[in-house]
Write a structure and sequence with these properties.
Blueprint lengths: L2 H4 L6 H5 L8 E2 L2 E2 L1 E2 L10 H13 L10 H21 L7 E4 L2 H16 L5 E5 L8 H10 L2 E5 L9 H6 L5 E7 L11 H10 L4 E4 L11 H4 L3 E5 L10 E5 L1 H6 L10 E5 L2 E4 L13 H17 L1 H20 L4 E4 L8 E6 L4 H10 L2 E2 L1 E3 L4 H5 L6 E5 L6 H18 L1
Helix pairs in contact: 3-11, 4-11, 5-6, 12-15
The protein binds pyridoxal-5'-phosphate (PLP).
The site of pyridoxal-5'-phosphate (PLP) has 13 residues, from helix 5.
């Protein structure tokens, strides 16, 4: 077929913006330009409405009640799980565990999968660009067990070479844990290749998908990851809800992490029988309204189409890269060939925090600091960067405002 058929129809960004009530605000007297989507993205009215409707018409505790509201809440919660399953193309809802977010998902794997399996001298392999959520849980597991954390390098562009990473896999490697997309540099990692190489050595792989789920179409069966984690609040859904996907056979083999209600079938003082998947890993009352909101968010992004989203965000990334690179004294940190929707940068003579404050005065929200990825940022010889991260509702005009504001800040400090 012709290339034109494969090209997704462009998004109607102005119409989409109208779906996000928060975006029409003025901040410090200026229209809000929200360019901090990597930290948390905004919610469309469909998500806000779904959560409200749940609270007004369905709320009760799940899984335990015979009364109508409890049934409704259970149905809504389990329908949300099925929605997540379809979004990531998992085989079964038994593989979808609701958590508080990516951080909790990774900690669950560290506690239930890694700690019982590793011995002193075993290895966990990560990369240099990981978010602290994909570093510290492994450091804690290493401290507790005597295992060793090994770190695959990144190059001067912020890219990870799959072959180089695979070269660090040894007989003692028990898990490879890598980001799908770097939150500090924007790098898209060659996760498919990394997974294939790790599996060839019999090593399971966890993928931190916090920054990928909002931007890339996911097919976890094709990707073949063993664990995949992401957060609701970065994918246009509520905060406090996230997902751990786990391969069913691995989840079956793991002990529960937290104990309490819902994760059991029977409790006796001489022993407890755990519930089946996925409930075995969901102790206590879950974030039911959060799951409902997350499902609405996934409906929303799926209706727009991840391919169309990726195409528009790629244009934004290219435009921002071009506009910002043209600014005298500005250095982009993270220039990998394959990047997703964010630009990290430093400006000579202007501290990133000052820049963030000056931009906020003009209604432009960016993030400054180490982005919870200190090793990645320090690899480039800087303690902090400014980061503009884009969503499908951002516009070229907002990038023009960003570039103009950075230029005037540079002039102020010259
Ligand atoms: N991993 C990456 C790559 C991230 O960008 C983030 C958040 O910024 C996290 C993990 C942690 O996500 P959460 O704070 O939602 O648990």
């Amino acid at each position: 077929m012709s290339a034109a058929v494969a090209t997704p129809a462009p998004l109607d960004v102005e119409r989409i913006r109208a779906d996000f009530p928060i975006l029409s605000q003025r901040i410090n007297g200026h229209p809000l330009a929200y360019l901090d989507n990597g930290a948390s993205s905004q919610r469309p009215r469909a998500v806000i409405d779904a959560e409200r409707r749940y609270a007004e018409e369905m709320h009760a505790n799940v899984h335990r009640g015979v009364h109508t509201l409890s049934q409704r809440a259970t149905d809504a919660f389990e329908a949300a799980r099925e929605r997540v399953r379809r979004f990531v193309n998992a085989r079964s809802t038994r593989e979808i565990i609701f958590t508080r977010g990516t951080t909790e998902s990774i900690n669950l794997v560290a506690h239930s999968f890694v700690r019982p399996r590793v011995r002193a001298g075993d290895e966990i392999l990560i990369t240099h660009l990981e978010h602290h959520a994909n570093i510290v849980p492994w450091q804690l597991a290493c401290e507790a067990t005597g295992a060793v954390l090994r770190v695959a390098p990144i190059d001067e562009r912020g890219a990870v070479d799959a072959a180089e990473l695979a070269g660090l896999i040894s007989e003692r490697t028990r898990l490879v844990a890598v980001a799908h997309v770097s939150n500090a540099l924007g790098t898209v990692l060659p996760v498919r290749d990394i997974i294939a190489r790790a599996h060839a050595r019999g090593v399971p792989v966890l993928v931190d998908g916090a920054q990928a789920a909002p931007h890339l179409a996911l097919d976890l069966q094709a990707l073949d990851a063993d664990f995949y984690a992401f957060s609701g609040h970065k994918v246009y859904g509520p905060d406090g809800i996230g997902v751990l996907y786990g391969r069913e056979a691995l989840l079956e083999s793991m002990p529960p992490w937290q104990g309490g209600g819902d994760m059991i079938l029977a409790v006796r003082f001489d022993g407890t029988t755990y519930n089946q998947l996925p409930f075995k890993f969901e102790a206590g009352t879950p974030h039911i309204s959060g799951a409902v909101g997350l499902a609405a968010a996934l409906d929303y992004v799926s209706a727009l189409g991840l391919e169309r989203i990726a195409a528009w965000e790629h244009q934004l990334l290219e435009y921002a890269t071009e506009r910002l690179s043209a600014i005298d004294g500005l250095r982009i940190i993270g220039t990998a060939r394959d990047k997703a929707s964010l630009v990290s940068f430093v400006v000579a003579g202007v501290h990133p925090h000052d820049l963030g404050t000056i931009l906020d005065q003009q209604g432009i929200a960016i993030r400054t600091g180490h982005h919870c990825a200190m090793p990645a940022i320090e690899r480039f010889g800087v303690p902090a960067t400014a980061r503009a991260s884009f969503a499908f509702y951002n516009t070229r005009a907002e990038i023009d405002r960003l570039a103009a504001a950075v230029e005037s800040a540079r002039a102020m400090f010259r």
